[in-house]
Amino acid sequence: MTSPDAATTDEAVWDEEVDFVVVGSGGGGMVAAITAAEAGAAVVVLEKQDLIGGSTCMSGGIAWIPDNPIMRQQSVDDSLEDALAHFDAVVGDIGPASSIERREAFLTTGGEMVGALQRRGVELVHCPGYSDYYSDATGGHDIGRGIEPTPYNGRALGPWLERLQPGLAQSVGLVVMTNESRDLGHYNRSLRSFLISARVVIRTVFARVRRQTLLTNGASLIAQLLRVAIDDDVAVWTGAPLTGLIVENERVVGVETVRDGSPVRVRARHGVLLSAGGFAHNAEMRAAHGGNQPNEAKWSIANPGDTGEAMGMAMALGAKTDLMDEAWWLPSPRTGRFGQSTLDQARQRPRTIYVDAAGERFVNESNSYMEVGKAMYERDKTSRAVPCWLVFDDRYRKRYAHLKSSPGRFPKKLLESGRLKKAPTLAELAEMCEIDVDGLAATVAYFNEHAANGEDPLFGRGESAYNRALGDPNRRVHPCVEPIDEGPFYACQVLPGDIGTCGGLLTDQHARVLGSDDRPIEGLYAAGNITATVMGRHYLGPGASIANTMVFGYIAAQHAAAGITFPSPLPA
Ligand SMILES: Cc1cc2nc3c(=O)[nH]c(=O)nc-3n(C[C@H](O)[C@H](O)[C@H](O)COP(=O)(O)OP(=O)(O)OC[C@H]3O[C@@H](n4cnc5c(N)ncnc54)[C@H](O)[C@@H]3O)c2cc1C
Questions:
Q1: Which ranges in the chain are annotated with CATH 3.50.50.60?
Q2: Which of 358, 430, 523, 528 is most buried as measured by Cβ atoms within 10 A of its Cβ?
Q3: Residue 240 alpha carbon, nearest atom of ligand 1
């Protein structure tokens, strides 16, 4: 960290000069870079890893943008009033991270940003049917407010293609869009799901035949943004970590980084944006800020660069923080690699429940991953629920497909390794898992009694459009609840992993970082998981996190670039 006293603006000490320095090449960073460049700014993006795109590139790539132009083009009703009411109803009063000014900035600018990206050739489509995660709360949207990128031929990037973080679809070998992936696992459950799955397979085969590298999800998003950035002469430096913020007269005027192994000082005439992600993989920071969460940063599937040092540099300058114990939680059955579990979808399907060590249910299992993850930590305060157990019956096994298994078959090694437990009766299963035997028996008896009528009086599972959207699409069964009554029975431990942290620097409606006196630290902006999110402690819909980083990246760039009307000299 460069101390304010040590810094100087003497031109001789700068190795490079630009208008705007962007730290981190995820969604917020790339949107900011092209937005500032379009306004005439000379921009450099510093990415510490050799690969570009951060968690955004690895993600589903959906962005939750209420009342966006794509929804309007398709006559899908929405309004800013509804979206604001939804924030009030779900996020509530959570402090300055989600102040009314920041909510309004997010909501009014989101649609504008989508229009700006479309104008630059970034292709995005609506995700119909992917409901808001609190669809039944005031202002919630059943059809959904998410948009995602269309398949994009990565070969258009030339040599840059090899420099992208591996995308989500790559791991399954299919050219599948995120809103299609809901149907892949249900290909045998409805004609619609079958046809969507067939379309995915045909697209994949065609891409191979045509020798295209069709990217989808977050990889398509980052690839498309990178294409615009390259066209706009944005300099993207990889292997270039932020190592210091340079301050003069209480203003951030530049950064220290490393290029080709040598230290470099870059002057930022109009500001520095920190869009360097959170601290999901920093065990020390998570222990310091996570309260009593039994979380050692081992269960996160965020990109490996999510280690929080840029946040630490801003904190050392006096930046305020909030929501530091919060993350985008992701309950992950322990069947293999986190986030790619064979049983990820199970909790949203019929014939399954989650129970704690007492054998009791504690949450609506079909709710969002954020909600279920939070419930696990909350329950763990009184009864062991980290890990908790997923319990299901043999009819479930016979009926459903998973990422790495077809209906009726689980990979043998799941049972052999002991990760999946199997027993002829629920009592024996409970004993194997050290779950209270009587507790589990009573829970399943009560659940079954009501599930037979498609009801869940305890938690209302299956009542919201969101619950149903991710459940079984076969109309002959209830989408989310059915009795668990056909042995043998199965259980698998579930851990509350995450896809990143979402607490961090407090920023205002212009994405300026706030100092200890609540005033902006001049010249310093932040967007994305490095900030305390405008979503507070909730995940409002598919893409809530990517929307948060993209929209505030866009806002930061516009604010920093205001007044730049001339093309500035570019860094080499
Ligand atoms: C598998 C998966 C699926 C997901 N699906 C979705 C989804 O569909 N919708 C959604 O909204 N969210 C999703 N998420 C979460 C979402 O991807 C992230 O929360 C979001 O992309 C974070 O964006 P960001 O811009 O803050 O950070 P990132 O996209 O992570 O970018 C930050 C970048 O900064 C770099 N960096 C860090 N420190 C430094 C430094 N000191 N110097 C230079 N560079 C640095 C990092 O290497 C990284 O490349 C998913 C996440 C994962 C892992």
A1: 11-53+226-326+501-561, 58-216
A2: 528
A3: 43
**Predicted confidence (pLDDT) per residue in 46-89, tens digit:** 999 999 999 999 999 999 999 999 999 999 999 999 999 999 99
Q: Would you state the structure tokens that stand for residue 145, as one six-digit string?
A: 């407010």
- At residue 409, the pLDDT reads 85
Band of pLDDT at residue 402, cut at 50, 70 and 90 = confident
Pocket test for ligand 1, best of 35, 55, 315 (most atoms within 8 A of CB): 55
Q: What is the pLDDT of residue 503?
A: 98
Query: What per-residue string of b and e applies to 45-62 under the rule 16 or more CB within 10 Å gives b?
Result: bbbbbebbbbbbbbbbbb
Are the C-beta atoms of 219 and 170 separated by less than 8 Å?
yes
Q: Three-state DSSP class for 493?
A: strand
Closest C-alpha residue for ligand 1 atom 10? 543
Structure-block tokens of residue 473: 């699409």
Structure tokens at 373: 């993850």
Strands 63-64 and 146-149: antiparallel
CATH 3.90.700.10 domain range(s) in the chain: 327-498
- pLDDT at position 181: 93
Rg of the chain taking only CA atoms, in angstroms: 24
Name the CATH architecture for the domain at 327-498. Answer: Alpha-Beta Complex (3.90)
| Ligand 1 mean position, distance from CA 14 (Å) | 30
Q: Across 94-203, where does the E strand assignment appear?
A: 124-126, 146-149, 152-153
CA 529 to ligand 1: nearest atom: 26
* Nearest CA, atom 2, ligand 1: 59
Within 6 Å (CB) of ligand 1, which residues are found?
A: 23-29, 46-49, 54-56, 58-62, 168, 178, 241-242, 275-277, 301-303, 305-306, 309-310, 328, 339, 499-500, 528-529, 543-546, 549
The superfamily (CATH) of domain 11-53+226-326+501-561 is FAD/NAD(P)-binding domain (3.50.50.60)
Query: Is the full-model pTM beyond 0.85?
Result: yes
C-alpha of residue 302 to centroid of ligand 1, in Å: 7
* Dist. CA 139–CA 142, nearest whole Å: 10
Question: Ligand 1 centroid vs 51 CA: distance in angstroms?
Answer: 12
Q: Coil, helix or strand for 74?
A: coil
Mean pLDDT of 316-328: 97
Task: Enter the CATH code of domain 58-216.
Answer: 3.50.50.60
Residue 156: what pLDDT? 96
For ligand 1, atom 8, name the residue with the nearest CA: 60
For a substitution probing ligand 1, which of 49, 106, 237, 546 has the most ligand atoms within 8 Å of its CB? 546
- The answer to whether the beta carbons of residues 86 and 134 sit under 8 Å apart is yes
Cβ atoms 113, 557 nearer than 8 A: no
Render pLDDT for 337-383 as a digit per residue (tens, 0 to 9).
Answer: 655 667 889 999 999 999 999 999 999 999 999 999 999 999 999 99
**Per-residue pLDDT tens for 199-251?**
999 999 999 999 999 999 999 999 999 999 999 999 999 999 999 999 999 99
Residue 568 pLDDT: 53
